[in-house]
Amino acid sequence: MHPLYDKFCKLCGELAIKNRIDPILAELYAKRDGLEAELNALRAALQKEQTDVDKIEGVTLSSVFYTVIGQKDRKLEKEKSEAAAAEEVFSAQQSEISELNEEIKKYEHELRTVRGCDLRYGRLLPQILDELRTYDSPESKEVLDTFDTLTRIEKKVSDFEKALELCYEVLANLSGAAKHLTRAETDLQNLSLLNAEHNAYLRSDIIINLEKVKPIVDTLCRQIKRLDADLVGSHLDFDIKIEIGNYSDDISEWKAEVEHLIPQIKEIQRKLREARDRWAKVAGERRTELHEQIKAVLE
Predict the structure, then answer these.
(1) Splitting the chain (299 residues) into consecutive groups of 10 residues, what average pLDDT does each group show?
(2) Distance (Å, rounded) from C-alpha 156 to C-alpha 277?
(3) Would the pTM count as exceeding 0.85?
(4) For residue 83, what are the domain limits?
């Protein structure tokens, strides 16, 4: 038995644990982020309901008004009921987050038991492969061929990850542009004449946002085109264009163009995630195959 056999087997086991826990934690973290965002909204709603109760109970214009019309007790009961309902929903959300945190802690503790295994594996595997390259056997050649295949697949997964990062960047900038366009559209609808200084600032803001988006979209299109050429069966065929022309007073046309792009980018995200997950699964299978082949050679 090769002296590195036991060490390699141990690292493979630890790596399997890490690869199992990482996606679970990523999903739990995302779920917690969503729940905490909802909790903030619920907190604001609860504060509003309590403020309404305080206004009726205290010496305020609202209290005087409802007393005069003989509706204070009825209004107070209604506001207290709404505040109690908001408190109940808020408490339930807090409990759900607390339970989620406990689950996260459990997985984080398990992950700490194999901390650094990926780095140790990354140092050991090249050492083993270098030695196998000196062997003249069908088994060692099979290991090296599998490793080369795995490397190519992992590169594809990495390319998908980079494209997904570009999608997030594009959406963030499109969202910023859409907000400015919505504000400008509202201003133009509500005001017969914009203040000249405000008008110039707003136009500059809109142009900056849209011009920031264009090179990112262009980069994304190039990335997807390369992926489509490289990955058989991915079928990521998208043709996304955004034209940044001269500023026009027809802001609604600009807004429609931006809003039309957002669902396109989200659809790309969905397809990229699906393709990434498929190739990540293939990479996992090839990695397991590689480990078994190496163990067979070292044993």
Answers:
(1) 88 92 89 84 77 63 48 66 80 90 95 94 93 90 94 88 77 71 63 51 60 64 60 50 51 74 80 86 92 91
(2) 11
(3) no
(4) 1-119
